Amino acid sequence: MATGRTYNDAIDALNSLQTPYAVIEARRKAGIRPDAASVREMRAYLARLGYSPPDLDRLNVVHVAGTKGKGSTCAFVDSILARYQRNGGPPRRVGLFTSPHLIAVRERIRIASAPISEELFARYFFEVWDRLEQNRAVAADMAAPGSKPIYARYLTLMSYHVFLSEGVDAAVYETGIGGEFDATNVVERPVATGISSLGIDHVFVLGNTVDKIAWHKAGILKPGTPAFTVEQVPAAEEVLKKRAAEKGVDLKVLKIDPRLAAARIRPDAIFQKKNATLAIALAEAALRKLDTSFSPDPDALPQAFVDGLEQVVWRGRCEVKDEDSVIWHVDGAHTVDSLKMAARWFVGDCAGRAGVGPKVLIFNQQGRTEAVDFLDGLCNTVKNADPAGKGFKHVIFCTNVTYAATGYKRDFVNRQHNPADIANMTQQRVFAERWKALDPSANIMLIPSIEEALNTARSLAEKEGEQKAQALITGSLHLVGGALGILEGADAL
Ligand SMILES: Nc1ncnc2c1ncn2[C@@H]1O[C@H](COP(=O)(O)OP(=O)(O)OP(=O)(O)O)[C@@H](O)[C@H]1O
Ligand SMILES: [Mg+2]
Ligand SMILES: [Mg+2]
Questions:
Q1: What is the dihedral of CA 447, 450, 453, 455, to 10 degrees?
Q2: Residues lining ligand 1, CB < 6 A?
Q3: Where in the chain are the domains?
Q4: Hey, what CATH topology would domain 319-488 get?
Q5: Residue nearest to atom 22 of ligand 1 (CA)
Q6: Which residue, 15, 31, 42, 173, has most beta carbons within 10 Å?
Q7: What is d(CA 260, CA 308) in angstroms, rounded to the nearest whole number?
């Protein structure tokens, strides 16, 4: 481990906690999946830090699981609570914990909607590090003494320390993977729980059908805590209801909130209305607990709610950046369903602009072999929306390596993928093959880094046209974060 104690040192130390590719592969082959031991382990680390699960009650946690829309829902809740507080109500300080990060690791831990500073991150990171070292013997029966939790668990643990130390009294938590065995599931008495849209993702860990996946997500439901979800496919809804009943939880399945008619949410799409509906219910449940004078109006949203929904900032999702030669459409979708949403949003936005130039796709997804099946919906949605049936003119498959010359930005170092696959662009070749079958007329390119992919799209646009090219960057939040970092300067947050 590095001897310094700067933010960069903290990120290097954190990266050393990533499970290496070889270990992941060995586990996968042996069929080892996370189980109840992971939450036990989190409790042990919490004890080494000097906390017990009841201490987390001070955070008044709003806990969100789901396949898609978790982060968006959490950002809405955070934004609503922030506006409510500015109007003079509680909470005093709102914390937000999300994953993954887009541009810098510290985005995952926010206070008052802003990522904690590099200084604060470094300080708390090493406080956690030292306490874990000093208290190796504590709860040694629940986690190996001397060990540190893996990356995502470390950040979860650290977030509790940050929020408790900084006087946060309402904290919105996005689960990492699943729910039942997720690191965030050490919280025992959240003030509200929510399950956003369910679909297929993380099949190795969670299972390959939506009912198995629903089982995991329902693991965050807690007796005595108000629980909400949005309308789901029947197989998922059935499991959620069954598990809720087993726990004695009254799970409310929400239809799109009619009060949303008063708020202009972006994008104006059903999926986002579902996220907003869930967020409203969660914020209302949290405020009932935090503010005895709060009582929801069934007919209208308070202004703070409307403002919170309209002014939320949730980067990397349905973003447009208008440059001289290219209009960049940026969205971090990375499942079959969400990529269809992203494609629909892209064609809708292009259709709303005068004089649309050639369409360019920049796509990547690393480490998931099933990602090749993401392409069909993406390709067809764009082709079908065009009166002449034309799809993307240029299709660029790149890696998630940020820069051509210097490689990964520190915050994006990822030891969980096979380095040989990245060097050989193995996955990108499979994508190219599939796209050729889907749309033989497309100009398909393999480009080794995000920086070069953006430059290629720009120079194609400059060479070809009077009209601006329309580029869609999607498939991976790492790709999108890297691209935004380059488009805005590396420290843009
Ligand atoms: N309810 C939804 N249903 C389907 N797609 C959605 C939904 N909400 C958001 N999306 C799409 O998924 C992308 C990611 O959204 P968000 O960050 O809210 O999800 P998430 O659940 O936090 O995902 P992850 O943590 O796995 O990246 C968005 O850019 C959008 O394209
Ligand atoms: Mg996910
Ligand atoms: Mg997320």
A1: -130
A2: 66, 68-72, 99, 174, 196-197, 271, 274-275, 317-318, 331-333, 337-338, 341-342, 477
A3: 7-310, 319-488
A4: Protein-Tyrosine Phosphatase; Chain A (3.90.190)
A5: 71
A6: 173
A7: 12
Rounded to whole angstroms, the Cα distance separating 98 from 196 reads: 14
pLDDT by position in tens, the chain (length 493): 546 899 999 999 999 999 888 888 888 888 888 888 889 999 999 999 999 999 999 999 999 999 999 999 999 999 999 999 988 889 999 999 999 999 899 999 999 999 999 999 999 999 999 999 999 999 988 888 888 999 999 999 999 999 999 999 999 999 999 999 999 999 999 999 999 999 888 888 888 899 999 999 999 999 999 999 999 999 999 999 999 999 999 999 999 999 999 999 998 889 999 999 999 999 999 999 999 999 999 999 999 999 999 999 999 999 999 999 999 999 999 999 899 999 999 999 998 887 778 999 999 999 888 899 999 999 999 999 998 899 999 999 999 999 988 888 888 888 888 889 999 999 999 999 999 999 999 999 999 999 999 999 999 999 987 789 999 999 999 999 999 989 987 555 5
Is 119 flagged in the annotation as binding? Answer: no
331 labeled part of a ligand binding site:
yes
Tell me the pTM: 0.92
SS3 299: coil
Strand, helix or coil for residue 313: coil
317 is in an annotated binding site: yes
What's the order of all strands across the beta sheet hosting 394-398? Answer: 319-322, 326-331, 469-474, 359-363, 394-398, 443-447
Residue 274's alpha-carbon distances to 77, 228, 253, in angstroms, are 13, 11, 11
Token output for 339: 């990529």
Instruction: Indicate the class that CATH gives domain 7-310.
Output: alpha beta
326-331 and 170-174 beta bridge pairing: unpaired
Nearest CA to ligand 1 atom 8: 69
